Amino acid sequence: MHILLVDYSHHLARILGPLLEESKAPFTIKHHVSNSSEALAALSEQEFNVVVVHTEQYDAAGLWLCHHIRQISDIPIVLLGGRDQFRLVRKALTYQVNDYLPAPFKPAALLHSLHRLQSRLGPAPAKKRPALKPPIQLNGKAMDSTHVIRVVKAYVREHLHEELTLKRIADMLHFNCAYLGQKFKTEEKISFNDYMLHERMKKAKHLLLSTNLRIYEIALEVGYRDIDWFYKKFKVYAGSSPNAYRRQKANTA
């Protein structure tokens, strides 16, 4: 079986080749890449039996790749690693990933997964199908613009409690931060920071009306460690303090 290894972190590539040789497993790494655009290019030019995607800290990039592989091929995908395992598994199922091994995984577990795929699917390379929509080039990376903005927005909504920055998300996606910010504003007609503020204030309003959480707890839930700063941003955004907003809505209910 010929493997396309996509190793964003460069860690797995150094150990998987020798492991396959030592185990005398019927698998060979036919090609090794470290980013999504190279992986898609390899799939369009060569024949493989399976794609092994090692995400490590690059969950979003790995999921994006799985999504686009499924647009052009039915090839089996094995997804390895990842930090946010619940979210990764949920998305992986959507993209019809054949197996997922959470980090830290043992090399023997990967070999077992490959053997299971071989026995189930046979040696023939997977059939390709035409891409539903050719990806565009963004700063040297193949990426569908609408999809990448959806990924960014979804990540923001699911991680509002964290100290989010566009650079952090851009690094996860292997994108230039300034270019991603420009693309976001072009697509959404709003800057990334304004979108993030809107989502945080929207969630804060919801929590003020639907829970008995204290103001400092709500501030933490929407990513503010400085409570005074949360009060200031909320008042500018909503026209009243968090306490006043809660009272006003309670009185008009």
From TrEMBL:
<dbReference type="GO" id="GO:0003700">
    <property type="term" value="F:DNA-binding transcription factor activity"/>
</dbReference>
<dbReference type="Pfam" id="PF00072">
    <property type="entry name" value="Response_reg"/>
</dbReference>
<protein>
    <submittedName>
        <fullName>Helix-turn-helix domain-containing protein</fullName>
    </submittedName>
</protein>
<dbReference type="GO" id="GO:0000160">
    <property type="term" value="P:phosphorelay signal transduction system"/>
</dbReference>
<keyword id="KW-0238">DNA-binding</keyword>
<dbReference type="InterPro" id="IPR011006">
    <property type="entry name" value="CheY-like_superfamily"/>
</dbReference>
<dbReference type="InterPro" id="IPR018060">
    <property type="entry name" value="HTH_AraC"/>
</dbReference>
<feature type="domain" description="Response regulatory">
    <location>
        <begin position="2"/>
        <end position="118"/>
    </location>
</feature>
<dbReference type="InterPro" id="IPR009057">
    <property type="entry name" value="Homeodomain-like_sf"/>
</dbReference>
<keyword id="KW-0804">Transcription</keyword>
<feature type="domain" description="HTH araC/xylS-type">
    <location>
        <begin position="150"/>
        <end position="248"/>
    </location>
</feature>
<dbReference type="Pfam" id="PF12833">
    <property type="entry name" value="HTH_18"/>
</dbReference>
<keyword id="KW-0805">Transcription regulation</keyword>
<dbReference type="GO" id="GO:0043565">
    <property type="term" value="F:sequence-specific DNA binding"/>
</dbReference>
<dbReference type="InterPro" id="IPR001789">
    <property type="entry name" value="Sig_transdc_resp-reg_receiver"/>
</dbReference>
